[in-house]
Amino acid sequence: MLTRSQLLHNIENLLKSQGYKTSDIYEQGSFDIVARKNLLILLLKTFQNIDSINESNAYEMKQLANIFLASPIIIGEKSRNGLLEEGVVYERYDIPTIGFETLKNMIIYNEYPEILADRGGYFVKIDGNVIKQYREEYSLSLKDLADLAHVSRATMYKYENEIVRANTETAMILEEILNTKVTLDIDLLKQPQKDDIAFSNGDDTLDLSKLGYGVVSTNKSPFDAVAKMKSSDKQSPLIANVEKNRTEKTLKRMAVPLKDLSMVTTSEPVFIINNEKIKESIGTIPVIKSWELKEFENSRELLKMIKERKEK
């Protein structure tokens, strides 16, 4: 079995070999690596045992994925029940969870898993259009097809309207009856359906909130906060570090992952601090003083100053 470090480097090498731009590896946070290819952004976390993830870590990972419009995926080797199976999607706190070979099949061969492991066994999603077309072609009622598949009429209705998943045994019976594939792939590389973001309400986010941003403060990421315009997905998010009585040396060290992650997530990196010794930037990251932030009337003024200080 691979160590977690080996698994991470295998993932990094796989993504780079297929043209993904990858971030550095951040093993201690709510994610380990971020990858981007064209408009697709992946937010990845690895565990040898996928049951090691905790709720707070998963929550922050989902929040960040929503803001970056990224697909969150956990990649592991085993669970408490044994090794992860290839081609099967597990879930932990509603985050898709797979083994490395399943990721490899998706990235290289565009082969997506069909099976979801859940309480009670393995399940698949039925393509309702296939059932409808078959019934129309052979003039079968829902009850006729349900009887052939040994399920109730109500269950067949739910399959046809893609309301519930079927167990793998029922799917195999349907494929024998229809003589065609009836299961739908689980596309983990598509942009996920957007969930509501729980924005912070603390005093440190108040000035950004007045400019129309929703702010998520982080505890397990290489930055302190991420901010997104509530009214639009078109404007890039901000990823920010704040002073928190940190020394200039510490802030300079924190600028490195801030720049790295901003390039992969297409975000605007910024420091929001009070330190008078630090002028307009730390490295190449613009610095906005807290008192300046209070004076902006809208987000355009903030973004203009960020652009000016980034270009100096």
Descriptive key words:
17 strands, alpha/beta, 312 residues, single chain, eleven-stranded mixed beta sheet, six-stranded mixed beta sheet
Helix and strand topology:
Elements: H1 4-17, E1 21-22, E2 33-37, E3 40-49, H2 55-68, E4 71-79, E5 82-83, E6 88-92, E7 95-99, H3 100-109, E8 115-118, E9 121-126, H4 128-138, H5 142-149, H6 153-160, E10 166-167, H7 168-178, E11 183-184, H8 206-210, E12 213-217, E13 225-229, E14 238-242, H9 248-265, E15 268-273, E16 281-282, E17 285-289, H10 290-295, H11 299-311
Parallel strand pairs: 3-4, 4-7, 6-8, 14-15, 15-17
Antiparallel strand pairs: 1-2, 2-3, 4-5, 6-7, 8-9, 9-10, 9-11, 12-13, 13-14, 16-17
Helix pairs in contact: 1-3, 5-6
Compact summary:
The chain is of the alpha/beta class and 312 residues long. It is built from eleven helices and 17 strands. The model has no long low-confidence stretch (mean pLDDT 91).
